[in-house]
Amino acid sequence: MSILDRPTRGANTLDRVYVNNNPCYTTVRVLEPTAKSDHKAVIACQGQAQIQLLNKRVYRRLFRRRSPAQHARFLEYASTLCVELDENKSAQSNFDTMYGVMTGLLDRFYPEREITVTSSDPPYVTPPAKALKTLLRRKNNLMRAGRTEEAGAIAFAPSSRASSRWLRKVDTRMNAKDAWAKVREVIKGKANRPDEHVDGLTAQTFNAHYAAISTDNDYRAPRL
């Protein structure tokens, strides 16, 4: 009999796990896959599942976009700006006034925006570089509109600069293995990121689990 009673691809239950009349799995879960697939992942285990699932984590972050057009508008306005401070007031009062003016200019010409970053983003999409996400989205929009030349102009500049910084301290002559490991991280992303580490989950854990459920003690080798 099948122990899976929920859809695994769209509205259909295509992926199944069959057992005999004595079910050996007490916990069955259907989850979003970590690989690029339209089939969902199935986890079946005995007892309560203790494995922390490594699904993609999504975070919302604030950033201020900076562009040449924004700089131009700010400089044009700042050239006519006059900030008046009162000599009779304390230094703290004048500082608060100046700070308020500066904060107002910042919010006016460089307003805060919210962007989504995930744990599967490339290494160069770090918290200080969240504006790269907007460039990637703009590139995708341009590609869908058929404006490939404009998209190509912004496609690789940020990642190239970040990759250069990423590889700057790697000595290719002394340790080529580490250099290639860094290159693979830039191209494919880290296999195990620090925020996705699961304590106690190792290759030996998987080996022991599958060896335990795949061993038939009553097996007899057939005659040649």
Protein traits:
single chain, 224 residues, alpha+beta, two-stranded antiparallel ribbon
Determine Rg (CA atoms, Å). Answer: 28 Å
Distance between the termini: 33 Å
Oligomer: single chain
Strand order of the largest sheet: 1-2
Overall strand count: 4
How many H/I helical runs? 7
Give the DSSP E fraction (strand runs of 2 or more residues): 5-15%
Most strands sheet: 2 strands, antiparallel
Low-confidence stretches: 191-195
Number of domains: 3
What is the ordering of alpha helices and beta strands?
EEEHHEHHHHH
Helix share of residues?
25-40%
- Mean of all residue-level pLDDT scores: 76
Shape: elongated
What structural category characterises the helix and strand content? alpha+beta
Put the structure in a nutshell:
By secondary structure, the chain is an alpha+beta fold. The chain has helices at residues 68-78, 91-109, 131-144, 148-153, 157-166, 176-188, 203-213; strands at 27-31, 41-45, 58-64, 112-118.
